Amino acid sequence: MQNSRLFALIRKEFIQILRDPRTLALVLVIPIMQLLLLGYAATNDVRNVPMAVFDQDRSPASRELLDAYRAADYFSIAYDVTTEADLQRLIEDGKAGLGLIIPPGFGAAIHGSEPAAVLFIIDGSDPSVAATGLSAAQLIGQNFGVKVQTQRLARSGIPLNGALPLQVHTQIWYNPDLHDSYFMVPGIIGMILYAITSILTANAVVRERERGTIEQLIITPIRPWELVVGKIAPYTILALLNTVEVLVMGSLLFGVPIRGSLFLILALSGVFLLTSLGIGLLASTVANTQQEAMLTVWMTMLPALFLSGFFFPLQAMPKPLQIISYLFPLRYYLNIIRTLMLKGTSILAVWPDVLAMTVFGIALMALASVRFRKRLD
């Protein structure tokens, strides 16, 4: 008798779960999403970092050195520049993660009695990529020097001194000590803006619907757009205040520099808010309860955090995931705020990301407003 009551209770619970297929689908999909993201995206094994080369020697020896770096899958020689200014601009714009400068006379020096030297410039704004580039540049350069040393010995038959014929000098820009906080603090700003505005906005609207008070708002003279603005304005202000708070605390406690314009950082943060507000409003149009709203937003937040470069460098991810990452506005915002804070560049260095983020923001807000208005009707 007791077992029959227990089984009846279990059956009732399963029936209630099955009557809410939307929540059930979300619960079943999230673990699969976590598995895929943690399995493929959670890696610091960086490969094919774009590299800019300024070869002032243009000799067979310099081409042989470039072939050695090209053979390793750590680097991808993406740019061949003719001035140091061009190389610096590529690194500032984030198009190249490293720069290699080969001085004139490199070929003569590498085969002479004095050691030759090259300079590697490394973008330190992402410590994981910078550390990999630093170690790989030195190791490949050392192996190339050993190869040249062996060729010398084979030609002359005379033992040579212990000094290798190639010296690899390195400079790490923007984050010389490779502090992880320089990378994480700007990312936390993006996460806060995303989480606060999307989750709280969705919950605020759904809460009115759960309590039945949204009908009271509808019959008032207030217009639909006024209702939308009134619901999202407080969370927008709170999110911007949190941005300032994290900037100040990150600078005071962790020494994270703010080299760019504070006004520009806040202005572009406001543009990013359009995307998270749009996601929150969209979630409120498909959810009937606050729990559903939370799960719906979480479905977008989870892949966004993993595929935006917040935790792991995008260069370490498989190519299909790198392509999918372009669908998440958080990717563009993290690149924008890290570039402005650490490199101190102008908006010209990040204008493609600003344009993409703006398009996403306008499209999401427009779609959310249309669906929200229909839901009110």
Question: What keyword list fits this structure?
Answer:
377 residues, alpha/beta, abc type-2 transporter like fold, 67% helix
How is the secondary structure organized here?
Elements: H1 2-18, H2 21-40, E1 49-55, H3 60-71, E2 75-80, H4 84-92, E3 98-102, H5 106-110, E4 116-123, H6 127-156, E5 166-173, H7 180-211, H8 214-218, H9 224-254, H10 262-286, H11 290-307, H12 319-324, H13 329-343, H14 351-376
Parallel strand pairs: 1-2, 1-3, 4-5
Antiparallel strand pairs: 3-4
Helix pairs in contact: 2-11, 7-9, 7-10, 7-11, 7-13, 9-10, 10-11, 10-13, 10-14, 13-14
Describe the protein.
This protein is of the alpha/beta class and 377 residues long. The chain contains 14 helices and 5 strands. Strand 4 (116-123), helix 6 (127-156) and strand 5 form a beta-alpha-beta unit. The protein starts with a helix and ends with a helix.
Give a short summary of the structure:
Helix content is 67%, strand content 9%.
Q: What percent strand?
A: 5-15%
Structural class: alpha/beta
Mean pLDDT: 82
Give the end-to-end Cα distance, rounded to a whole number of Å.
Answer: 51 Å
Strand order within the widest beta sheet? 2-1-3-4-5
Using only C-alpha atoms, the radius of gyration works out to 27 Å
With helices defined by DSSP (H or I, 4 residues minimum), what is the helix count?
A: 14
Please tell me what the overall shape is: elongated
Count the domains: 2
Let me know the number of strands: 5
User: What string, H for helix and E for strand, traces the elements in order?
Assistant: HHEHEHEHEHEHHHHHHHH
Helix content: 55-70%
